């Protein structure tokens, strides 16, 4: 035990003596919270809309002013020519085009159906679908009003219809920051564990100090524990920092148990650190390590469900996520923070994480050799 | 020298794939002696020293160090040895004191003992003003002296020195050898590789390796006589000219 303490002390001395790393440990959570949380959002505002108005009637003008008034659209092109509008779409001046045909006013006021057409730039499918949904919403509202106006003339009774009221649970205002912040926290914790710890061990290989350690009677578990504990502490401190910043800057809700969140994070870190040490036993230079670690990180992050809901992933991807520690952590963070989930709600993910951590750790201990 | 064997090597073979780095080595090292281990670059010295210190496993043969089998009891061997390699291996970003503390702690020494030894050691090395200096700021000669002191901090039975004086000026080398003599006076056996032939003359016994084999082993005096040479350097040139690996990049 005393040996481990001596080694941990050495690691901390080295970490904080490194002018860059010592500062980066605190700067990274700050920058991630301040920049990434507001930046990574699916909310779409200022959709550039082009309009081809061939009708130039009160009805078409009314529709256009409603679109402008919705707050989602900015009309960047107003023309009669299809060619010009398409050209604007091509040059990225507008994201979507609304074609209003001649006779909209005449057809609708005389109780007939008149088609309009919408073209959307779908290079980014998500943006395209959302833009379309917003535009459709405005059109639907206007449609109902037109029907009402016409119906009021013929019958006095209100139009029968099903009216839907919905409520968004756990994030009532659909605030994307609330959704993204736990995810960014998970990335933060992963980056600390994965990159710093692994590089640290490979650096000892590069400088040759590991030889000097290997020739001492130190036990494998002592060495590995001493390599992991400092980064686990730093990871948890950074998590705390991130949470505090999230509270101050974005007033992020925290509905669950902080203790549970840190417990899960500690187990997660043990797993990720185990994996980091495992990879570092295979790499002999920091370059090699970075390359491999980056590869794993990208896969873990993109498949963790941070941006895309896990339910919409193909089956094989969901199967892969069984061994993706980040997928569990992402889920656990969001559930604890936004839903206030208790241990029983996350038990499955908790135990999965525990098993993963145990597997990665034991592989790391087994693969690390003091005698070649 | 007491005549007790602390290292015994029988039919040691170490292969890396098809390459035979150590080809059937046989020798003994006696307690308290300075055993010089010479050879051209690529002769297989470092391979042997790594096996003796438990860092690498022999392919075949019997290697006993401090009474333990290098094949099965590498960790036991490590408790009884010190090791200082050509690649300088103290932590550059820790101070002199912190390095001493760390290795003392790793060998399970008591805090009080570590502190006492540190003070004594700094005094002996005339290192007082450097005790809080980063290792990276020290000149090479001081680093090497400190590395040696740290390697024997826990009073091991044997210390392995792999080219400990490489790149060091003659005055510091002289001082370094004084430290080696002091260590042997305390009963520590010294196993040293070197490229400086004058240093070979300081050893009690010298072995010369060539192409993975030991081609000569005796006291410096006997070797000179045997090969009819005025110095170990001449002996070395006569017998250790490498033919297999002229570039000598293997170590």
Encode the helix/strand succession of chain B as letters. Answer: EEEHEEHEHHHEHEHEEHH
The tally of domains of chain A stands at 2
- Strand arrangement across the biggest beta sheet of chain A: 2-1-3-4
Mean pLDDT of chain B: 89
Give the biggest sheet of chain B: 6 strands, mixed
Oligomer: heterodimer
Biggest sheet layout of chain A? 4 strands, mixed
State the CATH topology of the largest domain in chain B.
Rossmann fold
Hey, roughly how much beta strand do the residues of chain B contain? 25-35%
Outline the low-pLDDT stretches of chain A: none
Shape of chain B: globular
Index terms:
heterodimer, A: 372 residues, alpha/beta, abc type-2 transporter like fold, 2 domains, 4-stranded mixed beta sheet, 14 helices, 67% helix, B: 251 residues, Rossmann fold, 6-stranded mixed beta sheet, 4-stranded antiparallel beta sheet, globular, disordered C terminus
Short description:
Chain A is of the alpha/beta class. Helix content of chain A is 67%, strand content 6%.
Describe the fold and architecture.
The complex is a heterodimer of chains A (372) and B (251). Chain A has helices at residues 2-17, 19-39, 58-69, 82-90, 104-109, 125-154, 176-207, 209-214, 220-250, 258-282, 286-302, 315-320, 325-339, 343-367; strands spanning 47-53, 73-79, 96-100, 117-120. Chain A is an alpha/beta fold. The mean pLDDT of chain A is 88. Chain A folds into two domains: 2-40 and 172-367, no CATH class; 47-154, abc type-2 transporter like domain (abc type-2 transporter like fold). In chain A, strands 2-1-3-4 form a four-stranded mixed β-sheet, with helices on both faces. Chain A contains 14 helices and four strands. In chain A, α7 runs antiparallel to α9 (220-250), α7 (176-207) packs antiparallel against α13 (325-339) and α10 packs antiparallel against α13. Chain B has two domains: 1-80 and 157-251, 3-Layer(aba) Sandwich (Rossmann fold); 91-155, no CATH class. Helices cover 35% and strands 25% of the residues of chain B. Chain B contains nine helices and ten strands. The longest helix of chain B has 16 residues, at 170-185. Chain A binds chain B through residues 2-3, 5-7, 9-10, 13-14, 17-18, 207-209, 211-218, 370-372, and chain B through 53-57, 74-76, 78-79, 81, 83, 85, 87-94, 98, 101-108.
């Amino acid at each position: 035990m005393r040996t481990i303490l001596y080694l941990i002390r050495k690691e901390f001395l080295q970490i904080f003596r490194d002018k860059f790393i010592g500062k980066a440990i605190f700067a990274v959570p700050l920058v991630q919270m301040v920049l990434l949380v507001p930046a990574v959002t699916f909310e779409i505002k200022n959709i550039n809309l082009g309009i081809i108005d061939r009708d130039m009637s009160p009805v078409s003008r009314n529709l256009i002013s409603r679109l402008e008034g919705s707050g989602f659209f900015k009309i960047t092109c107003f023309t009669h020519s299809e060619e010009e509008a398409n050209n604007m779409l091509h040059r990225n001046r507008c994201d979507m085009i609304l074609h209003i045909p001649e006779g909209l006013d005449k057809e609708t006021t005389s109780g007939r159906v008149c088609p309009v057409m919408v073209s959307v730039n779908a290079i980014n499918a998500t943006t395209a679908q959302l833009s379309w949904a917003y535009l459709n919403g405005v059109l639907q509202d206007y449609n109902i009003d037109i029907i009402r106006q016409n119906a009021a003339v013929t019958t006095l009774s209100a139009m029968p219809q099903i009216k839907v009221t919905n409520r968004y649970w756990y994030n009532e205002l659909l605030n994307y920051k609330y959704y993204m912040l736990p995810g960014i926290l998970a990335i933060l914790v992963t980056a600390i564990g994965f990159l710093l710890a692994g590089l640290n061990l490979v650096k000892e290989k590069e400088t040759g100090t590991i030889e000097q350690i290997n020739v001492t009677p130190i036990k494998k578990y002592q060495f590995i524990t001493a390599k992991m504990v400092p980064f686990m502490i730093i990871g948890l401190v950074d998590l705390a920092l991130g949470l505090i910043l999230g509270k101050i800057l974005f007033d992020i809700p925290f509905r669950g148990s902080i203790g549970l969140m840190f417990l899960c994070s500690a187990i997660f870190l043990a797993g990720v650190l185990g994996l980091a040490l495992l990879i570092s036993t295979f790499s002999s230079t920091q370059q090699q390590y970075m390359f491999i670690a980056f590869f794993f990180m990208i896969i873990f992050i993109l498949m963790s469900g941070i941006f895309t809901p896990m339910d919409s992933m193909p089956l094989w991807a969901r199967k892969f996520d069984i061994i993706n520690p980040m997928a569990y952590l992402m889920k656990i963070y969001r559930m604890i923070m936004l839903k206030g989930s208790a241990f029983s709600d996350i038990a499955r993910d908790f135990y999965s994480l525990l098993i993963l951590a145990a597997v990665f750790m034991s592989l790391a201990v087994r693969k690390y050799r003091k005698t070649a | 020298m007491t005549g007790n064997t602390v290292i015994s090597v029988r039919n040691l073979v170490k292969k890396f794939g098809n390459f035979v780095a150590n080809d059937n080595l046989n020798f003994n090292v006696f307690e308290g002696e300075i055993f010089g281990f010479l050879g051209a670059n690529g002769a297989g010295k470092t391979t042997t020293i790594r096996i003796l210190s438990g860092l690498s496993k022999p392919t075949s043969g019997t290697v006993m160090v401090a009474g333990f089998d290098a094949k099965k009891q590498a960790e036991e061997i490590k408790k009884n040895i010190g090791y200082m390699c050509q690649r300088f291996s103290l932590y550059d970003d820790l101070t002199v004191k912190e390095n001493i503390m760390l290795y003392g702690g790793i060998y399970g020494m008591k805090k009080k003992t570590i502190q006492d030894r540190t003070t004594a050691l700094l005094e002996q090395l005339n290192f007082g003003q450097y005790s809080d200096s980063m290792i990276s700021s020290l000149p090479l000669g001081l680093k090497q002296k400190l590395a040696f002191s740290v390697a024997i901090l826990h009073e091991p039975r044997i210390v392995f020195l792999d080219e400990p004086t490489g790149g060091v000026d003659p005055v510091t080398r002289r001082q370094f050898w004084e430290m080696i003599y002091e260590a042997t006076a305390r009963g520590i056996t010294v196993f040293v590789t070197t490229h400086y032939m004058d240093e070979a003359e300081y050893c009690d016994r010298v072995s010369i390796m060539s192409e993975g084999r030991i081609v000569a082993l005796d006291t410096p005096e006997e070797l000179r006589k045997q090969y009819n040479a005025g110095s170990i350097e001449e002996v070395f040139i006569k017998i250790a000219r490498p033919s297999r690996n002229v570039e000598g990049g293997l170590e």
